[in-house]
Design brief:
The complex is a heterodimer of chains A (276) and B (318). Chain A is mainly alpha-helical. Helix content of chain A is 73%, strand content 1%. The two termini of chain A are 32 Å apart. Classes of the chains: A mainly alpha (276), B alpha+beta (318).
């Protein structure tokens, strides 16, 4: 074996043991029958996959895609100007990057709980607005799609900002000067030069936000309060409350395939081929 | 008729140093002009103030007689060919050339863009992306992209610096021909004296933020206004206070009568094809070069000789 292969060995072993094997188990479970107290039993069946066509589950799948897409769009709208600003902040750009990464210093769970205290009826926003007599009754900020969306955007914004920043930071300032020189006003320069040239970062950022949002479980669980169910919650439900491991596996498989197909489509798109 | 460009007492300060120090310059329409100087002399900063990318600390820029200090680059009727070309990587050669036409709301875009690509002999590569073009081709696309919007003034920031020497010489002639064909005023920034001398109708020699001399290549070479200009444009020998070009410096074995001369020893001879450079160590300890035609070189290394010159060839400065 060459030295290079030896270097790859630890990563390969790790991935085989903790990724490929569990994935194969999930695949296998998808085609088995549920046991009475959890677990799986014979015989092999396609029923779990057939159940996915149930309008109830299709609705949840659709909701998950919709919420993940909306969260991605919001991250892009918030993150692009932020990344552009940081990339042009000169010597202070490292400080700003640290600030973007600051939330990672505390646990994901703690940060999501913190939103409970901000959004609930007796939380920060409602208390302030009530004291200022701007509202009579607390606004319903928690346990709905809006709360889930807020939590997702908050948690995944850095995943958009970092690749976007990396691309914008490498953007040749002479391109912006050239556009201006040829008669483009700042907004036209943004639309016709900055965004197209930094498209790889935009695509990477969107994928990095959309994929984890699609499978999000903790955020909809805490901030959606069980009322705003996404695919991740449905999977979790099958393994705990419903004790239907095969159906949970089938759901996970579909989620994973959907993400993989989306990624493949993006990577094979004309845009990606030309720019990456 | 108003000058196409006029700079009045332009000063540009950067934190800690003055890049441009009281520069005034006036260019007539339709000429090929150069700003020549060593790196760091302020020539690129001057160009960027004309393009609108930098604001002068004081002084005024006029285009066609009207002050443009307050105008953004996209409001000025000038265009720049950048040193790095700055082609848009996501657009084809044609797309790059059409960019300015679209932004300036000009019609008949494709025909105009194709005519410009034709002008720089790149019509066959209209659909190539910049990454698929060679350095020289990128250069031509950048030229076409600026020429197509027919600016009052075309600014070129060391556009030939990134090309290999052979291509560079070829592009000199092409640039000059393009300027004549389009009639657009060119202002060309370079640190290469040969480039500036061979291409320009008039050139401004810059040093430490100031214009030391502005004149035709002949004037600047034959009658340099300052010691710096004399030394920067071509080699010069200093015999006391008098400067003499190597091609005006003669060599003989006997002391010549009636002309100034100085004794020295030939340290080395340098064969340059059509001529020979004799490097001499003079008796006062300084060095000088004499350029003699190959056929007339009768001198050996180590020989004691007299260097002399015609008093009319002396360049003298205060």
């Amino acid at each position: 074996m060459t030295l290079r292969r030896w270097f790859l060995l630890p990563a390969r072993a790790w991935m085989a043991l903790f990724f490929a094997v569990p994935l194969a188990i999930v695949c296998g479970y998808s085609f088995l029958t549920r046991g009475d107290y959890g677990g799986v039993e014979q015989p092999w069946t396609l029923e779990n996959l057939a159940r996915l066509a149930d309008p109830l589950y299709l609705a949840i799948l659709w909701r998950s895609v919709w919420i993940a897409a909306l969260a991605t769009l919001l991250c892009a709208l918030l993150g692009f100007p932020l990344a552009l600003f940081i990339s042009r902040a000169g010597r202070r750009r490292n400080l700003f990057l640290q600030l973007v990464l600051l939330p990672f210093w505390t646990s994901f769970l703690v940060r999501t709980y913190a939103w409970l205290f901000i959004l609930r009826d007796t939380g920060l926003i409602n208390t302030v607005l009530t004291r200022l007599h701007l509202i009579a009754a607390p606004l319903p900020l928690l346990y709905n799609d809006g709360a889930v969306l807020t939590g997702l955007v908050y948690n995944f914004l850095p995943f958009f900002v970092l690749p976007m920043y990396a691309t914008l930071e490498r953007l040749d300032p002479a391109l912006i000067e050239a556009a201006s020189d040829l008669g483009a006003r700042p907004f036209a320069t943004l639309c016709r030069v900055v965004i197209p040239v930094s498209a790889p970062g935009l695509v990477a950022g969107c994928v990095l936000v959309f994929v984890p949002c699609l499978g999000a479980y903790l955020t909809p669980d805490l901030l959606g309060g069980g009322k705003s169910v996404m695919l991740g919650n449905l999977v979790q439900n099958q393994f705990t409350t419903a004790r239907d491991w095969p159906f949970g596996s089938a759901l996970s498989l579909v989620l994973m395939l959907a993400s993989a197909l989306l990624l493949a489509a993006l990577l094979r798109s004309r845009l990606a081929r030309e720019l990456m | 008729m108003a000058s196409v460009l006029e700079l009045r007492n332009i000063v540009k300060n950067f934190p800690g140093h003055r890049a441009v120090d009281n520069v005034s310059l006036s260019l007539d329409r339709g000429g090929f002009y150069s700003l020549l100087g060593p790196s760091g002399c302020g020539k690129t900063t001057t160009l960027r103030m004309i393009g609108g990318f930098e604001q002068p600390t004081s002084g005024e820029v006029f285009l066609n007689g009207s002050a443009v200090n307050a105008l953004k680059p996209y409001q000025r009727d000038v265009s720049t060919v950048f040193q790095s070309y700055a082609l848009f990587p996501h657009l084809t050669a044609l797309g790059n050339v059409e960019f300015g036409l679209r932004e300036r709301r000009l019609d008949n875009r494709e025909a105009r863009a194709m005519a410009a690509l034709d002008l720089v002999k790149l019509a066959g590569k209209r659909d190539r992306l910049p990454a698929q073009l060679s350095g020289g081709e990128k250069q031509r696309v950048a030229l076409a992209r600026s020429l197509v919007i027919e600016p009052q003034l075309l600014l070129l920031d060391e556009p030939l610096a990134a090309l290999d020497p052979k291509l560079r010489k070829q592009m000199r002639a092409e640039l000059k021909a393009l300027q004549r064909r389009t009639g657009i005023t060119f202002l060309f920034v370079t640190h290469d004296q040969e480039e500036a001398l061979s291409m320009s109708d008039k050139l401004a020699v810059m040093n430490e933020g100031r214009i030391e001399q502005f004149g035709s290549p002949e004037e600047v070479y034959l009658r340099p206004a300052t010691r710096f200009v004399a030394g920067f444009l071509g080699a010069i020998n200093w015999f006391g206070a008098a400067g003499v070009r190597p091609e005006s410096t003669r060599v003989s074995r006997e002391a010549p009568a009636g002309v100034p001369s100085i004794r020295g020893a030939i340290e080395s001879t340098l064969f340059l094809g059509n001529c020979v450079h004799l490097n001499a160590m003079l008796e006062d300890g300084s060095r000088a070069i004499a350029e003699v035609p190959r056929a007339q070189n009768r001198f050996q290394e180590g020989e004691t000789v007299f260097l002399h010159w015609h008093p009319g060839d002396e360049l003298r400065f205060e």
